Amino acid sequence: MYNMDKLYEAVAVKGHVCVGLDTAVDYIPPRERKAAASDADAVLAFNKALIDATIDAAACYKVQIAYYEELGLAGLTAYAETLRYLREQGALVIADIKRGDIADTALRYAKAHFDGDFEADFVTLSPYMGMDSIEPWISYAETKGKGAFVLMRTSNKGMRDFEYQELKNGGRLYDTVGDRLATLVESHKGAHGYGAFGAVVGCTERDEAAAIREKRGNLFFLIPGYGAQGGAADDAALLLREGNGGVVNASRSILKAWTTMPGAGDSVDNSFAAEAARKAAIEMRDAILRAI
Amino acid sequence: MYNMDKLYEAVAVKGHVCVGLDTAVDYIPPRERKAAASDADAVLAFNKALIDATIDAAACYKVQIAYYEELGLAGLTAYAETLRYLREQGALVIADIKRGDIADTALRYAKAHFDGDFEADFVTLSPYMGMDSIEPWISYAETKGKGAFVLMRTSNKGMRDFEYQELKNGGRLYDTVGDRLATLVESHKGAHGYGAFGAVVGCTERDEAAAIREKRGNLFFLIPGYGAQGGAADDAALLLREGNGGVVNASRSILKAWTTMPGAGDSVDNSFAAEAARKAAIEMRDAILRAI
Predict the structure, then answer these.
(1) pLDDT in tens, chain B (292 residues)
(2) B3-291: which CATH architecture?
(3) ipTM
(4) I need a surface site. Which of A61, A243, B94, B207 has the fewest CB within 10 A?
């Protein structure tokens, strides 16, 4: 069984929310940050509180490694501990690492993120160098059910610079990435019709969303751009075929939900932030379910 | 002064070799690996021996983080220690991390790799998501002289999948990446006419090399593909304008040079491997100088 099948089933039960643990230290209640032995400890404690509070409202979690690397070795220890805690809770987790390197190097990365200290259920991958930067990872779909989301059409403004370039032979670059990925996963298709690997497709280009969903029948989507990046439930819904074609990530709008709650201030603690995160995740889940 | 200026000057004195410390544990003499307290310790000791032996024959070093991540937190400690040792020796070092993420995330990565535990002089970046995944890094060129090499046309076979796609408006995708990068660095140009940021251009497509070098006058190149990947000194020379337009990376052909030396076997030590690496680096340096 592929992790992508498990994710599909988690969505069916819990809705589409992917909680993004892009935990910057300045998102943490100042009182908790001050009380922690280190910033890395503060990040880990905050993450655990938010995981406990959101676990029944989230299909999965996405951990953006940049926010941990920023804190050096201590930060990467907190990253490893966050992944471990998520595993212990039985949560599915996407390591947002956007790796893209070839051959032997790709296999080293795959071992790093699908095994050992940094083991996750899914990773994100960047396709620029070509399919030999994607294919090595798929051996872990075969042996351990692991999954990946390959950057296809992202939600940032710069997406137009290269992903969106029109090709001489027709279509845009992201289309060709989608074509190659769709072909690759045909030989690694799970119980629900989706491949072991899916694609990152942002919900910020409304006019194309339905067509992309229609065309990419075997690709489960990781959908960024919701909330802080401007995407709304309606936009995300267009990318969710039959209501279960992907997960929708939100990071800041959940992590920082506490800052706009009544009673917010320097004296609140992680349980206050966790309760706010829970409310934000549930609201987001319900908004998406209504929009489908 | 930009680090790219320092690299130009290092090439002028020491030649074009960039020693790639893509140190897999199975490249290390078995006797040393067995004697070390851990694989990560074995990697660090091997690296130090090779750095000592090659420092006067190498313009710079490139450390491929995948080989360290593979060993988990202990591996990343060896990565940080390798970078620290290189700094202590006054060597220039490229962190081969191929990051490509946007806005706030890019800034977190930049802080991680241009400051603190993992500080390097240069990084490698992947442009797929667009220029908003490159631009945030350049603030570190302004404040600390830091540099980057952006993937443009790489040396792997899969390069043809996306980088090489012909665009509707003319040229190939890698051309458009080059255009955008050349424009970006015009406002960050150093003492020798090259920008603070350069490009990764492989030496495996001989017929295009001279044209790429001609067209990209303000981009210093990081040139992979030499040795184990099939590129030769003649191919690399085509990418080196006036003899000083880039550095040429070799990893396996230097790290594993000891395995083909007379007397190689399970009983040799790191000093044997280091001496072989030194010879391989000097031969490579001289072959490139002859080919220019």
Answers:
(1) 999 999 999 999 999 999 999 999 999 999 999 999 999 999 999 999 999 999 999 999 999 999 999 999 999 999 999 999 999 999 999 999 999 999 899 999 999 999 999 999 999 999 999 999 999 999 999 999 999 999 999 989 999 999 999 999 999 999 999 999 999 999 999 999 999 999 999 988 788 898 999 999 999 999 998 886 777 899 999 999 888 999 999 999 999 999 999 999 989 999 999 999 999 999 999 999 999 9
(2) Alpha-Beta Barrel (3.20)
(3) 0.96
(4) B207
φ/ψ of A236, rounded to 5, equals: -65, -40
Give contacts of B71 with chain A, Cβ < 8 Å. Answer: 116
pTM equals: 0.97
Q: Clarify whether A146 is annotated catalytic.
A: no
Contact B100, A100 (CB under 8 A): yes
CB contact under 8 A, B154 and A102: yes
Which residues in chain B touch residue A113, judged by CB atoms under 8 angstroms apart? Answer: 69
**Rounded distance between C-alpha atoms, residue A258 and residue A277, angstroms:** 7
CB atoms within 10 A of CB A267: 10
Q: Which residue of A has its CA nearest to B174?
A: A162
Q: Which residues of B1-20 are buried (b: 16+ CB within 10 A; e: fewer)?
A: ebbbbbbbbbbeebbbbbbb
